[in-house]
Amino acid sequence: MFEKVLVANRGEIAVRGVRAAFELGCKTVSIFPYEDRNADHRIKASESYQIGEQGHPVKAYLDISEIIRVAKESGADAVYPGYGFLSENPDLASACAANGITFVGPSADVLELAGNKVRALEQARKAGVPTLKSTPPSTDPAELIAGAEEIGFPVFIKAVAGGGGRGMRRVDDPARFSDELGAAMREAQGAFGDPTVFVEQAVAAPRHIEVQILADHEGNVVHLFERDCSIQRRHQKVVEIAPAPHISDELRAALTTDVVKFAKAINYTCAGTVEFLVETSGPRAGSHVFIEMNPRIQVEHTVTEEITDVDLVQAQLRIAAGETLEEIGIRQDELHIRGAALQCRITTEDPANSFRPDTGVIQAYRSASGAGIRLDGGTTGTGVEISPHFDSLLVKLTARGRNLHDAVVRAKRALAEFRVRGIATNISFLRAVLEDPDFEQGVVTTSFIDERPHLLTGRVPADRGTKLARFLAGVTVNQPNGPAPTTLEPAAKLPARLPAGEIPDGARQRLLALGPAGFARSLREQQAVGVTDTTFRDAHQSLLATRVRTRDLVAVAPWQARLLPGLFSVECWGGATYDVALRFLGEDPWERLAKLRAAMPNQNLQMLLRGRNTVGYTPYPTEVTRAFVSEAAETGVDIFRIFDALNDVEQMRPAIDAVVNETAAVAEVALCYTANLLDPAERTYTLDHYLRLAERIVAAGAHILAIKDMAGLLRPAAATRLVTALRERFDLPVHLHTHDTTGGQLATLMAAIDAGVDAVDAANSAMSSTTSQPPMSALLMALDGTGRAPDIDPQAVLDLEPYWEAVRRLYQPFESGLPAPTGRVYSHEIPGGQLSNLRQQAIALGLGDKFEAIEAMYAAADKILGRPTKVTPSSKVVGDLALHLVAVGADPEEFAADPRGFDIPDSVIGFLNGELGEPAGGWPEPFRTRALEGRRKPPRITEVAAEDLALLEKPGVERQQTLNRLLFPGPTRDFQQGRDEFGDVSVLPTVPYLYGMEPGHEYHVPLEKGVTLLLGLEAIGAPDKWAMRTVMTLLNGQLRRIRVRDESLESEVVSAERADPGNRGHVAAPFAGAVTVTVAEGDEVAAGDQVATIEAMKMEAAINAPITGVVKRVVLGGTTQLDGGDLVTVIE
C-alpha cells in the first residue's frame, strides 16, 4: 500500500479520499488555492499545500504542474483525482507516470480512449454494444452544425473532456443550436480547460441507467449492479437509486454483460461507470444504448456502496497499489444486491431562481442522522462562506432501507430534519420530488422534472427563526426608536387571573338575536346609555400615532371580553389603523381583525369606514366598497361607522347599501360636526343644516345616527340642542363621538346623555383626554346613581388601567398628543387625531418651534378653502396647505388673493378639483378659479382592473390581499416585502420589536400553538469597511451570526448599482458571478433575448431581456464580478 496519497481535488470527494486513505494506513496530502483555505479537506489531511494564484481558484485545481510539484515536495507516491477537475485528464496520468508517481485510475491511454466520448463510442460499437449516432469531436462550429443537421434533431452537445452535466446542452430547435453550442463550448473550457465538443443523437423519454465496475491490472472485471439516475435537471443528476427499480432481470443481465464486455475490450483498470439510456415507450421500449464511459469514481457511488457493502474508494486505492480483485476479496459470484439505497444531492441551487447557485454565509446548519442515513459532505457548517467559485454541492444524503419504500421514507425524514439558513438550498425541491406519487412507483424518465413544474414551487422553508432574528438584529444595531423607555411587558400588569368559566353574553349576542334593525330599536328603547370603548383604535390613533401593535391589543382582549361584557361596542378597526398596520407595523390589518374577533366573541366590534372610499383616501368603484364591507363583516365587524369628510350622503350611500343589504351588521352613519351651531353668526353649519343632513342619512337606510365631533367643538349646550332635535325628528338611536382636546368634553357627554343620546364613546382613563376621548372611569362615576348608568363594572375598568398605562409608557416615543388640554381648538378647529399628527409633521419639517404659527395658519387655510368639515381626508388638505404656507413664509391674505404665484400641494389641487366633493358652504371664489388655472383635472375614481374585480368575488385571504393592494398599493408592497424578508414580525414581543434586544435577556416568541422560539443577544461586533456589523444572536440556545448594516455609518466601499425590482426594464444579475454584457447601447432586443452571460460555480448561464425594447444603458465595462440583484443593463 502507498505511504502517502495526494488528493487532487476539493470538497466532498477530497474528504472521501482522505478518509479512505487514512483507513488503509496511508498519510494524506491536500491541495488548496487561497480562496479555499478554510475548506475541510485542507484540515483533515496529514499535510496541506497552497497552489495556484490568488484570484484564480478553479484554475489552480486544473494546474497539473502545481499538482506534480506538491506531490514531489511532499513525498506523495500516489495521486487520487476523485471526480471532476482533472480526474479524466490523461495529461495528469502521464505526468504522474513520468515522475514516478502512481495515478489512482486507468492508464493515460485508457483515459484518452474512455474519457474521450467519441472514441468510447467507437470502441463500444466494436465490442458489439448498442450506441447512438454522433459526430467527430470538434471545436469548429460550422462542422458541428452540419453534423447536427445530418443526425437530425433533437441532439445533445457534449464536452469531450467532461461530465457532471457541464458543457452539455440538449437542443430541440435548430434555430437555437448555434447559441447553445457557444455556451456549451465556453462552459467546457471553463470547467475542463478544453472546449472540444461533439454532437449526439437524443433519445425520447429515456431512463438513464449506469453500471458500476471495478477492474484490476490482471484483466479481471466485476460489475456492482446498476443505478437509476433518471431524475435529472439540465443533465445533472439530482436523485440516484440503486438498484434501478422496475427493470427486468433480462435487462439487468444485458446491461451488466455489455459493461463487462466493454471494459475488457479497452483493458480498463480501477473504478469506472458505463452509462446507458433505456427506451421506455414505442417499439424500442426496453432496449438500451451506450452513451459514455466515465473512467473515474462518480458522485453517486455511495448508493452502490450501500447495496453491495463494497468500499469503492478503498478498492480504487488498493487496485492502484497493485492488488487484484481476488486479493481484495471482491468476486462477482459473491456480489449481491442487499436492500435499496437512494441519494439526494443537497446543493445551494435555488429552485425559486431557476436553480441559480446561491452564495453567502451559512448562518445555521443542522444535519440529519439516525438509522439508515449516510452523509458525505465537504466544507459545510455554521459560519462557512459559500463562494461562487466552486461546485454548489453542500452534502450528499444517502438513505438505505430493506426496499426502495423504506429508503425513500428515511430520505424524506432526513430532508425534513435538515436546517440550512443564510443561503438558499434545493431541499424543498428534493422533498417535492420524493413526495411525488409517480416517483416511488418508478414512473421516471429523464424528463421527470421538466414535466412537473410544480416541483419547483414546492414548500419553501419558512426559516422563521433566522428572519425574525435578522429583524431584531437590525433594530438592535440601529435603534430607530431610541432606547427603550421601559423593559416591562404590559401583560405583567393585567389582572392576576382571567375569570374562569364561559365568556358571558354581551351586546353581540343581542345583535345576533335581534338583527341590526331590532338591535338598533332596542338601543333606542333602553334607558341605560350605551358605551363604546375607543381604546383599541381612536384613542391610540390620537395619542400614539396609531402605533399600538396587534399583539398588545389581543393580549388584553380576553379580559375585556370577560370583565366588560356590558359595553355597547369596542371600536378596534378601520380608519388609519388599516394603512398604518401595513405601512409601519409589518402587520396585515385583516389578521388583526380576525384575532380580535376570536378573542372577544361577545363584543360588538366596530370600525370606521370612509364611505365609498372604505379605508382609503380616494373614491373606488362600488364593487370595491361592496367587497370590502362583505369581507369585513365576514371577518368580524359588527358595526360600521360610516362617514364622509364633506358629509356627502351620495358618497356614503354605496357603503350604507352594502352594509344594510348584504350583511347582518349595523350601519351607523355619521354626520361630521364642525363650527358652533350656537353662534348666531353661523350661516353654514346651523342646526337646520345638521337636521337636513340627518334626514338624508335616515332616508339612505341607516340603523343608527352618529355625531362625529372630530375636533371636540361640540359645546354642552349645542349637544343638548342637537341631540334633542335629532331624537324628536327621527326614531333612530343617536351615538355621540367627540375628542377631549379642550378637557371639557365630559360635560358635553353628560349634556347629551341628559338630552337622551343613546350611546357615547369613551376611552380607558390611561389612554384618554386631550386629543383622545373622555375618560371612561370619569363617565361611569358621573353616571353613578342615575337612571342612565350602563351595566359596566367601574372596578373592572379600573383594573385594566395599569395595563394601558404600561402600554402607553412602552410606546412613549410615539406619544404625539398634547401635554395638557388646549382651548385654542375652538379657534383653529384642528381635529384631535390630526392635531397630534400635525405636531409630528411640523417637527419633521423643522417647524416644531412654530406650532402656534401653524395653528394660526391652519385657521387661515380653513377659511381660504371655504371652511369644509375637517375629517380625514379633508382635514389633511387643510393641514397640508397650512404647513406649506408656513414653510415658505407666505402671507395667507396674499395667497388667497392670487394663488397663481405660489406652488400648491397636490392634495389641495385635488380638493379644489372636486375629488372629495363640494363643501357645504360652496366653493371659495374667485380663489378656486385662480388656483386651478392650468391645474384643473376631473375628479378621479380609482380604476380597478377586471381581473382584480374578479378576485373581489372570492371571500377570504385572496380578497383581503386584493383589497390591501387596491387601497394601499405602496404600503402593501412594503408590507409584503417586509414579510418576505423578515417573516411575521407581529409575533415578536413589543420591547425588542421597537427597541432591540439587550444582552442577558431571553425573548420568548410564540410562533404557533406549542412552538416557541427563544431569542437572545450575545454580542455586537465593530463595523467593517462596508458599515456592516456582525451581531451574535442566540436562537434556541445556539449562536446565530447575522450581518447588519449600521445606518449611522457611511460605507467606505463604493457599492454596485442595484436594480429596481419594480422596474421591469432593469436587468439584474440573477446571482453572484462574473457577468459579461453581450449587447450595446441602442440595440433593439426582444423579451427572452440574451443580453449578458454570467459564469459561476463552473457553470455559464444566459441573462435574458425581461421585456422588448431598446438598450438605453449598459452599466458594465467588460467582465465584472457582481452580486445577485446588481444592475447589468437598462431596457426601455
Automatic annotation (TrEMBL):
Keywords: ATP-binding, Biotin, Gluconeogenesis, Ligase, Metal-binding, Multifunctional enzyme, Nucleotide-binding, Pyruvate. InterPro entries: Aldolase_TIM (IPR013785), ATP-grasp (IPR011761), BC-like_N (IPR005481), Biotin_BS (IPR001882), Biotin_carboxylation_dom (IPR011764), Biotin_COase_C (IPR005482), Biotin_lipoyl (IPR000089), Carboxylase_cons_dom (IPR003379). GO terms for molecular function: pyruvate carboxylase activity. Its cofactor is biotin. Residues 1055-1132 form the Lipoyl-binding domain. Residues 1-454 form the Biotin carboxylation domain. Residues 529-798 form the Pyruvate carboxyltransferase domain. Catalyzes a 2-step reaction, involving the ATP-dependent carboxylation of the covalently attached biotin in the first step and the transfer of the carboxyl group to pyruvate in the second. NCBIfam families: PRK09282.1 (NF006761), PRK12999.1 (NF009554), pyruv_carbox (TIGR01235). This is Pyruvate carboxylase. The lineage of its organism: Bacteria, Bacillati, Actinomycetota, Actinomycetes, Propionibacteriales.
